[in-house]
UniProtKB/TrEMBL annotation:
Binding site for ATP: G11, P12, A13, S14, A15, G16, K17, S18, T19
Chief place of localization: cytoplasm
Similarity comment text for this entry: Belongs to the cytidylate kinase family. Type 1 subfamily.
Name listed for the protein in its UniProt record: Cytidylate kinase
Catalytic activity entry: dCMP + ATP = dCDP + ADP; CMP + ATP = CDP + ADP
Gene Ontology annotations of biological process type: nucleobase-containing small molecule interconversion; pyrimidine nucleotide metabolic process
Originating gene: cmk
GO terms, molecular function: ATP binding; dCMP kinase activity
Sequence ranges assigned to domain Cytidylate kinase in this UniProt record: 7-219
EC number: 2.7.4.25
Organism placement in taxonomy: Bacteria, Bacillati, Bacillota, Bacilli, Lactobacillales
Subcellular location: Cytoplasm
Principal EC category: transferase
Tagged with keyword Kinase: yes
């Protein structure tokens, strides 16, 4: 019988993780889990409730009464906070610019890591984030580390924004991406870093379909090996 795998996709901001992870999940009929959306949801709630974003105890207390759920949607997966839909709200620039501070708090990481492991327990999962291969799912059968140049990632975000009618200059986007990557890579607890057994894929010059094809080949190969 075929074992259903755990697929971990990590990398810096706007490397294409969620776009590719969703397509991989669809192709293999796996569940997709966007761990960045979970950190964003916690950040949104803390901002709404005026909980200090750098107070680990206050955030831990808030989390004991916080429910985060995903529901399938078309085309986007929907995100719910305490039963209320927040899919769009968690993508607002103020959440984006505060999320790394919240994500650096050990209490928040411990809580969300537990939730993520429960979601992934049965396998058949594609999970994307920053610390999936290194910390959340250290035994994942497939680990991918997606990278792209900061210029290319700023261009991609610029295009995404333009489609939504947002016109932040490329230089500003570049700075925001660099700031967030720096915070994520230098925090004390499970920083963004490539797992020793992860496969590094530079997507700067690759299309989405090319990236999906490469990762699909790796998954098919892995399934054969452990069949
Ligand atoms: O904007 P982008 O889609 O690249 O980011 P995201 O995946 O939505 O993640 C937002 C933020 O959450 C990151 O910048 C990290 O600070 C944090 N995060 C994390 O610390 N660990 C994860 N596994 C996922 C996200
Ligand atoms: O999840 P993460 O922040 O890593 O990136 P994303 O939101 O999935 O991707 C950012 C943008 O890059 C999306 O508009 C993708 O369509 C685009 N893109 C990509 O993901 N991969 C490529 N090889 C080329 C473009």
């Amino acid at each position: 019988s075929k074992k259903e795998l755990q697929v971990a996709i990590d990398g810096p901001a706007s490397a294409g993780k969620s776009t590719v992870a969703k397509k991989i999940a669809h192709r293999f009929k796996y569940v997709y889990c966007d761990t960045g959306a979970m950190y964003r949801t916690v950040t949104l709630k803390a901002m709404r409730e005026n909980v200090a974003l750098d107070d680990p105890e206050a955030l831990a207390k808030m989390l004991t009464k916080t429910e985060i759920t995903f529901k399938p949607g078309n085309p986007e997966q929907l995100v719910f906070l305490d039963g209320q839909e927040v899919t769009m709200a968690i993508r607002q620039p103020d959440v984006t610019n505060n999320v790394s501070t919240v994500a650096a708090q050990g209490t928040v990481r411990a809580d969300l890591t537990n939730r993520q492991r429960q979601i992934a327990e049965a396998g058949g999962i594609v999970m994307d984030g920053r610390d999936i291969g290194t910390s959340v799912l250290p035994d994942a059968e497939v680990k991918i580390f997606l990278v792209a140049s900061v210029e290319e990632r700023a261009q991609r975000r610029f295009k995404d924004n333009a489609e939504k009618g947002i016109h932040t200059p490329i230089e500003t986007l570049k700075k925001e991406i660099e700031t967030r990557d720096h915070k994520d890579s230098t925090r004390a607890i499970s920083p963004l870093t490539q797992a020793k057994d992860a496969i590094r894929l530079d997507t700067t010059a690759l299309s989405i379909d090319e990236v999906v094809a490469k990762i699909s080949d790796i998954i098919v190969q892995k399934r054969k090996e452990i069949e």
